[in-house]
Specification:
Structural class: mainly beta
Strand content: over 45%
Number of strands: 11
Helix content: under 10%
Oligomer: single chain
Radius of gyration: 14 Å
Order of helices and strands: EEEEEEEEEHEE
Length: about 130
């Protein structure tokens, strides 16, 4: 099991930036990749970005591509999400997630957006973007 703790959320004006951090502990070496999801009120949880542990491949949703950057520091077991040019539609609770050990990593490149691919989740951090 992997324990995940997010930080860095807050209130920002449209066009501003925030950096989210996810600190992982536990069996982090068994997690093929880590990602960020977000959930706005009344909406389903949606994929934002992810990064593989071994080779640093990154994946982004179309809605954030070019504005958000995901990175990781394996030595510190930390994953960062740098968010720029934030817009009101980015308002949501942002969750960090780790790929479940039972996931077939050979299929990750086509399943990375599915919540079911991830087995451990953080508690979330609120991001609010005002217009």
């Amino acid at each position: 099991q992997v324990q995940l703790v997010e930080s860095g959320g807050g209130l920002v004006q449209a066009g501003g930036s925030l950096r989210l951090s996810c600190a992982a502990s536990g069996r982090t070496s068994s997690s093929y990749a880590m990602g960020w999801f977000r959930q706005a009120p009344g909406q389903e949880r949606e994929f934002v970005a992810s990064i593989t542990r071994s080779d640093g491949r990154t994946f982004y949703s179309n809605s954030v591509k070019g504005r958000f950057t995901i990175s990781r520091d394996n030595a510190k077991n930390t994953v960062l999400l740098q968010m720029s040019d934030l817009q009101p539609e980015d308002t949501a609770v942002y969750y960090c997630a780790a790929v479940a050990p039972w996931s077939d990593t050979r299929l990750y490149s086509v399943r990375y957006m599915r919540t079911g691919t991830y087995g451990d989740w953080g508690q979330g951090t609120q991001v609010t973007v005002s217009s």
